[in-house]
Amino acid sequence: MAIDFSKYIASVKDFPNKGIVFRDITPILQDGNLYRTATHELAEYAKSRNADVIVGPEARGFIVGSPVATELGIGFVPARKPHKLPREVERASYALEYGSNSLEMHKDAIKPGQRVVVCDDLMATAGTLRASKELIENLGGKLVGAAFYIELPDLKGREKLPDVDIYSLVKYHGA
């Protein structure tokens, strides 16, 4: 029997004046069985995409992606906010509802030809996914999929990246 993860995701008004609702995954993370099950489902997706590497965008992507990589026995690469990584980095910018930001990855993090799946908690407008895709491709890798706990289809993230295969545990309409 499949788990209805939506029952374990809390909704909180994040920016009430803009109507943005934050989806909190803490209830899933607090329950070891739920967390293992969610991790396993994302790992099965990444395995089906023949992933060589998992990329997790800062910071919840670390919580989601790292255990997926561990379950599969493959590498995990963090995509960090600016100036948090030592050594030489590649940078990609992305737009937000309230400004812009960027992600960085070590220049040697992805080897040419590696198949990469991005894992994160939420896909909304696909800003961090687009930046991750740019970093992966600039480093010679191939983005073969993206896996999320939560997707907000009304924000049209999929439409902004029609060439990316996307998997999510829960889709919330009326973002």
Automatic annotation (TrEMBL):
SUPFAM superfamilies: PRTase-like (SSF53271). Pfam families: Pribosyltran (PF00156). It catalyses: AMP + diphosphate = 5-phospho-alpha-D-ribose 1-diphosphate + adenine. Keywords: Cytoplasm, Glycosyltransferase, Purine salvage, Transferase. Gene3D superfamilies: 3.40.50.2020. It is found in: Cytoplasm. GO terms for molecular function: adenine binding; adenine phosphoribosyltransferase activity; AMP binding. It comes from the Bacteria. Its EC number is 2.4.2.7. Pathway: Purine metabolism; AMP biosynthesis via salvage pathway; AMP from adenine: step 1/1. It is an enzyme of class 2 (transferase). InterPro entries: Ade_phspho_trans, PRTase-like, PRTase_dom, UPRTase/APRTase. GO terms for biological process: adenine salvage; AMP salvage; purine ribonucleoside salvage. One of its GO terms (cellular component) is cytoplasm. Catalyzes a salvage reaction resulting in the formation of AMP, that is energically less costly than de novo synthesis. Belongs to the purine/pyrimidine phosphoribosyltransferase family. Homodimer. This is Adenine phosphoribosyltransferase.
